[in-house]
Write a structure and sequence with these properties.
- There is one protein chain.
- The chain has 335 residues and is an all-beta fold.
- The protein has a single domain, classed as Jelly Rolls, CATH 2.60.120.
- It is 1% helix and 39% strand.
- It is built from one helix and 18 strands.
- Strands 2, 4, 5, 6, 7, 9, 14, 15, 16 and 18 form a ten-stranded mixed β-sheet that branches. Strands 1-13-12-11-10-17-8-3 form an eight-stranded mixed β-sheet, with no helix packed on it.
- A hairpin with a 2-residue loop joins β14 and β15.
Length: 335
């Protein structure tokens, strides 16, 4: 997906009630095209990465001390077409791999996730969607300020697929989305789809994105994008981001493909330096089906071919740099 095609496709996965009127294409975008192969990550400069949290998914079931399973049929504020459930059909562990599995099946459940229900006129509203899938978060269990965040995953392909690895603030110190920020470590849509405007060989774009700004419709995002042919080889690859004070760098298989610095982000709620990305954030893994972005790019809509489909995660790991805990810097060579 060429960077120029991102303008006007709307936000990434939205997370709070404030977004309901805004998720759908009013964002501003600044995207930097990069080479099809990532450049090498600079070597460390004195500090060393310390593993502070991980899940290798070696147990028989998801570890409830690490993860929450999300259940809702909201659609993420992006008109996604799945209900997230806690059923083993949608969230399971086998052979050391977490599988978030999307099925083509009608399902009815709570429209609203628990954190949004209190803001709704009908908090117990039910909604029916044509797909089910899985979503898990570390909210309330683990969150971090700065670090290196990675997952090793094999990704689903096809029109309408939308796997993601991302972060939201543990506490909305600056207000509801996007005033307190959103960090998208990895996301991709419509992988493998061939179309006139797709990359040769099939859609293969991987993106890292920050969301921030003012309350909708003043929400803004900036992203970095790379065409990575390896995403289509059916193998596991490692997708990550390094977050330091005033700086983000996104990586694939340990190699950097883009960076955003604090001069490119802000929140309307505060003039404090580096806001809103100076507070702890928690992790989210999910596999969405449909939504404003995938359904308006590539071939359009959602193809039902090939279901069920899986986002398979071998592990998730979090490192922090021991050089300077207050800034998170000292392990990347400045990038």
């Amino acid at each position: 997906m060429n960077a120029s095609r991102l303008s006007g496709i709307g936000t990434a996965i939205c997370a709070t009630a404030a977004m309901l009127s805004a998720c759908g294409g009013e964002d501003n975008v600044s995207s930097v095209p990069v080479a099809s192969a990532p450049s090498a990550t600079p070597s460390p400069t004195g500090g060393s990465w310390q593993l502070v949290w991980s899940d290798e998914f070696d147990g028989a079931a998801l570890d409830a001390t690490r993860w929450n399973m999300i259940t809702d049929c909201w659609g993420g504020g992006n008109r996604e077409q799945q209900c997230y459930t806690a059923r083993p059909e949608n969230v399971s562990i086998q052979g050391g791999v977490l599988s978030l599995t999307a099925h083509e099946e009608s399902h009815t459940g709570d429209a609203w996730p628990a954190h949004i229900k209190p803001f709704q006129a009908n908090p117990n509203e039910q909604r029916t969607q044509p797909f089910t899938s899985g979503k898990v978060t570390t909210a309330g269990n683990a969150s971090w300020l700065y670090g290196r965040f990675e997952m090793r995953a094999r990704l689903p392909q096809g029109q309408g697929t939308w796997p993601a690895f991302w972060m939201l603030p543990e506490d909305e110190d600056f207000g509801g989305w996007p005033l307190s920020g959103e960090i998208d470590i990895f996301e991709a849509v419509n992988l493998g789809v061939e179309c006139d405007s797709c990359e040769p060989g099939g859609e293969q774009s991987v993106l890292g994105t920050l969301h921030f700004g003012d309350a909708p419709p003043g929400n803004v995002y900036r992203n970095r994008e790379v065409a990575f042919p390896g995403v289509l080889d059916g193998e596991f690859h490692t997708y990550g981001a390094i977050w330091e004070e005033g700086r983000f760098a996104w990586t694939i298989d340990g190699e950097s493909f883009g960076m955003i610095e604090a001069s490119e982000w802000y929140t309307a709620a505060s003039a404090e330096p580096n806001v809103p990305f100076n507070r702890p954030f928690h992790l989210i893994l999910n596999f969405a089906v449909g939504g404003n972005w995938p359904e308006t790019t590539s071939l359009g809509g959602v193809s039902t071919d090939g279901f069920p489909k899986q986002m398979e995660v071998d592990w998730v790991r979090v490192w922090q740099c021991d050089a300077d805990a207050s800034t998170g810097r000292g392990c990347t060579g400045g990038m």
